[in-house]
């Protein structure tokens, strides 16, 4: 059996239309591929059918509407739809328990259903992040449940996803895709698919397990690198050196095949991946008698940041003569990183909780986050505008910096706040000029590691 994909007009089904699945589906549809998205969440399918999208990713709602309008993007809860497609992409969620063990429910049910509808000649591409070995030991046997044989009747490849919130749609058409095939034919078919469907380069791996490990190494590295930046920032603050200057200079230095690339310090690490994938890796290693102490160390360093940032605010207020329990703090930006409204595991929540515990009156504003989600996560009514939040504030705490904040009239905001208002730069990483202009307006600037 020769797997399809040597034709121009390939069709694709994407199973799991969460963050990853919907970005992949709309990007393929926008490139002219016929896509059918399948999800068990009927309300999500209803919304997408109507051309709407609940996810806040920039450009995603527009591409959902465009895909529905052009007819290139169909959505359904019915798994039978996958039978008509050449490629089946799986992007269901893979949460972990406290101890890092994979919660297999979504993968298990999706692979079982797909197995019942697979037909000979199809290629299945698994994108969910999993402990190495999962594709071979769990997914492949379930896909074979309908009677077909993996590698003979259908192809299988693991292709990890690298996109990140805020720039997902650009990244999906730019970043190379790592491909680990069940066998050579599966790998080659998956490579052809990504090159033709999204116009991206591919990075072949010699096994599925290597490709699965690539994804975990990616997030291990990012979490670790951020931990390094965060600890550097705490150290620089203690010796009176600007951490951003140190990082910028260090990153100029060639090392190996590229430059040293230390990331930036911030409020902490959140989102759905960096908070779980390192533990998934740690658990998988432990089951084989390997102790990955760097995973634990990096997680601890990053998890300590919200408390550190709350401390910076409380100390900064005290230095200005305002005890925390008589202060008003306006938090601008609540998401877990810049330019997204995603509140999943956001480290801004423990900062806000610590400030409240210290007695501060905390106002919240994030133009990208859904007000209902803010209410649910933070338990308070968000301000509808930045002015309302900033009014009478002793501290403006920018915990996530969105591009649209650059339009803010800082002089007007300063006029609304208390005199000498503390400006806590949690993620804006302002350059020297901007810091000077904020200081010139009468703000007292403090940044992480600055
Ligand atoms: N979010 C990211 O930035 C990101 C980046 C890289 C990799 N990943 C990985 O990609 C995978 C998907 O992540 P996500 O953020 O899109 O998850 P998500 O939770 O946003 O979406 C998962 C979707 O799968 C659906 N689903 C659950 N069970 C199903 C089933 N049996 N059949 C069909 N659909 C089903 C859910 O209804 C949901 O819509 C995870 O493994 C994640 O670790 C995520």
From TrEMBL:
Keywords: NAD, Oxidoreductase
Keyword ATP-binding: no
UDP-glucose/GDP-mannose dehydrogenase C-terminal domain ranges (all copies): 330-432
Keyword presence, NAD: yes
SMART domains for this protein: UDPG_MGDP_dh_C
Highest taxon of the lineage: Bacteria
Signal peptide: none
Pfam family, one: UDPG_MGDP_dh_N
Entry's family note: Belongs to the UDP-glucose/GDP-mannose dehydrogenase family.
Protein name listed in UniProt: Nucleotide sugar dehydrogenase
Organism field: Streptomonospora nanhaiensis
């Amino acid at each position: 059996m020769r797997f399809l994909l040597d034709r121009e007009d390939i069709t694709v089904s994407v199973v799991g239309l969460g963050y990853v699945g919907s970005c992949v589906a709309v990007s393929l549809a926008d490139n002219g591929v016929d896509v059918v998205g399948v999800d068990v969440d009927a309300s999500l399918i209803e919304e997408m059918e109507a051309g709407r999208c609940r996810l806040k990713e920039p450009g995603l709602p527009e591409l959902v509407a465009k895909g529905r309008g052009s007819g290139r993007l169909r959505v359904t809860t019915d798994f039978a739809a996958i039978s008509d497609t050449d490629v089946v992409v799986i992007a269901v969620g893979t949460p972990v328990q406290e101890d890092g063990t994979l919660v297999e429910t979504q993968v298990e049910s999706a692979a079982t259903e797909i197995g019942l509808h697979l037909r000979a000649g199809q290629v299945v591409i698994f994108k969910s992040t999993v402990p190495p070995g999962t594709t071979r030991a769990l997914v492949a046997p379930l896909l074979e449940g309908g009677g077909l044989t993996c590698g003979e009747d259908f192809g299988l490849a693991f292709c990890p996803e690298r996109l990140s919130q805020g720039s997902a749609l650009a990244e999906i058409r730019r970043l190379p895709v790592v491909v680990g095939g069940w066998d050579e034919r599966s790998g080659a078919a998956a490579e052809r698919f990504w090159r033709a469907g999204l116009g991206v380069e591919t990075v072949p791996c010699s096994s599925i397990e290597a490709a699965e490990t690539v994804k975990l190494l990616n997030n291990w590295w990012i979490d670790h690198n951020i931990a390094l930046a965060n600890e550097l920032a705490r150290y620089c603050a203690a010796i009176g050196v600007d951490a951003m200057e140190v990082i910028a200079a260090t990153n100029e230095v060639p090392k190996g095949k590229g430059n040293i690339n230390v990331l930036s310090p911030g409020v902490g690490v959140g989102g759905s991946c960096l908070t779980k994938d390192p533990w998934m890796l740690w658990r998988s290693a432990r089951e084989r008698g390997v102790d990955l102490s760097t995973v634990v160390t990096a997680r601890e360093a990053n998890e300590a940041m919200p408390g550190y940032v709350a401390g910076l605010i409380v100390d900064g207020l005290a230095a200005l003569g305002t005890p925390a329990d008589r202060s008003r703090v306006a938090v601008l930006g609540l998401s877990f990183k810049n330019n997204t409204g995603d509140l999943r595991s956001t480290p801004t929540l423990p900062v806000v909780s610590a400030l409240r515990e210290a007695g501060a009156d905390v106002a919240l504003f994030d133009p990208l986050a859904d007000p209902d989600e803010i209410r649910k996560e933070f338990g308070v009514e968000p301000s509808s505008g930045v002015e309302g939040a900033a009014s009478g504030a002793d501290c403006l705490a920018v915990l996530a910096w969105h591009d649209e904040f650059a339009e803010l009239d800082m002089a007007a905001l300063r006029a609304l706040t208390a005199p000498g208002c503390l400006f806590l730069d949690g993620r804006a990483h302002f350059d020297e000029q901007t810091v000077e202009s904020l200081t010139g307006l009468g703000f007292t600037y403090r940044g992480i590691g600055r």
